């Protein structure tokens, strides 16, 4: 569960149910509007403007049907000078999904980059696999129309959301690359949705010489190329023995860096 609400861009926060119940935290962040999206969403504070959407954290749940309604609520609140808290129960999946959809609509970013931006501010952000599919479909089939619609309703947009999102994307990259603790491999990764590949092994890719390479090897080469272009000379690949010997498994390699970045700028 997320630990405290996080500011994503000006006037927009993501949090969990406890944040929505915490009067002191709401007031300290000047929250005037609350978008509550979970199975038992309801108004909790009489002095706050609410949009309550009852929806389950289930891959089969259609959240995309609510995107326009959420976009309008969030944007109108921000333009009026207010601040919005978008929350579900854990502040990880449902709330993040509608936040990503909104930010896609007010910027020129796609869903993958927008999710990276949200993760730059809230590391636990991780919509379930079904919601990620819906964001992808939204980008491909509805996004341009929704951008035009929102602009027709609110012609003026004083916010610099795309620039803010790009800064958050860089913060996310630095976290994935280095983590808050370079000694902890687990802190540098995000877990794939359960059974994302079904019962299949990840496909091998064909390299430029006609051979094949695994996804892990491809990822290693991608990171290495990025490092070469950014001259990160202190970054190396090392044999991973941190988990001890594993029967019938090959020794793996992991990425280590001596460089630590402070990207902890939290509210």
UniProtKB/TrEMBL annotation:
Where does the record place Basic and acidic residues bias?
Answer: 200-229, 257-267
Q: Which InterPro entries match?
A: Dual-sp_phosphatase_cat-dom (IPR000340), Prot-tyrosine_phosphatase-like (IPR029021), Tyr_Pase_dom (IPR000387), TYR_PHOSPHATASE_DUAL_dom (IPR020422)
Pfam families for the chain: DSPc
Main location (coarse class):
membrane
The Tyrosine-protein phosphatase domain extends over: 4-144
Per the UniProt record, which EC number(s) apply here? 3.1.3.16, 3.1.3.48
Q: Which reaction does it catalyse?
A: O-phospho-L-tyrosyl-[protein] + H2O = L-tyrosyl-[protein] + phosphate; O-phospho-L-threonyl-[protein] + H2O = L-threonyl-[protein] + phosphate; O-phospho-L-seryl-[protein] + H2O = L-seryl-[protein] + phosphate
Q: How does it sit in the membrane?
A: Lipid-anchor
Q: Where is the composition biased (Polar residues)?
A: 230-239
Gene Ontology terms describing biological process = signal transduction
The question of whether Membrane is a record keyword is answered with yes
Keyword Hydrolase in the entry? The reply is yes
* Signal sequence coordinates: none
**GO CC terms, sorted:** cytosol; plasma membrane
Per UniProt, subcellular location reads as: Cell membrane
Any idea where the Tyrosine specific protein phosphatases domain is? 64-122
Q: Which GO terms describe its molecular function?
A: protein serine/threonine phosphatase activity; protein tyrosine phosphatase activity
**Which controlled-vocabulary keywords does the entry list?**
Cell membrane, Hydrolase, Lipoprotein, Membrane, Myristate, Protein phosphatase
Query: Region annotation Disordered: residue ranges?
Result: 187-267
Checking SUPFAM superfamilies in the record gives: (Phosphotyrosine protein) phosphatases II
- Which family is this protein grouped under? Belongs to the protein-tyrosine phosphatase family. Non-receptor class dual specificity subfamily.
Q: Any idea what this protein is called?
A: Dual specificity protein phosphatase 15
Q: Which organism is it from?
A: Lingula anatina
- Name of the gene: LOC106151484
């Amino acid at each position: 569960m997320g630990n405290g609400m996080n500011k994503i861009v000006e006037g927009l926060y993501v949090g969990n149910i406890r944040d929505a119940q915490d009067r002191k935290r709401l007031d300290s962040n000047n929250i005037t509007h609350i978008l509550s999206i979970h199975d038992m969403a309801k108004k909790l504070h009489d002095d706050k403007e609410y949009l309550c959407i009852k929806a389950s954290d289930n891959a089969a749940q259609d959240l995309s049907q609510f995107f326009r309604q959420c976009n309008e609520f969030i944007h109108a609140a921000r333009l009026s000078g207010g601040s919005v808290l978008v929350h579900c129960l854990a502040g990880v999946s449902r709330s993040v999904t509608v936040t990503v959809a909104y930010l896609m609509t007010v910027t020129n970013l796609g869903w993958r980059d927008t999710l990276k931006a949200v993760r730059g501010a809230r590391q636990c952000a991780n919509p379930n696999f079904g919601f990620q599919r819906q964001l992808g479909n939204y980008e491909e089939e509805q996004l341009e129309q929704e951008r035009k619609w929102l602009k027709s309703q609110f012609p003026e947009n004083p916010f610099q959301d795309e620039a803010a999102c790009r800064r958050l994307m860089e913060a996310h990259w630095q976290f994935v690359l280095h983590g808050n603790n370079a000694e902890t491999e687990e802190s540098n990764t995000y877990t794939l949705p359960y059974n994302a590949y079904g019962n299949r092994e990840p496909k091998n890719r064909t390299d430029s010489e006609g051979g094949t390479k695994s996804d892990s090897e491809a990822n290693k080469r991608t990171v290495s190329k990025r490092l070469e272009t950014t001259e990160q000379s202190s970054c190396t690949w090392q044999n991973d023995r941190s988990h001890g010997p594993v029967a019938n498994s090959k020794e793996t390699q992991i990425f280590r860096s001596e460089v630590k970045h402070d990207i902890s700028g939290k509210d």
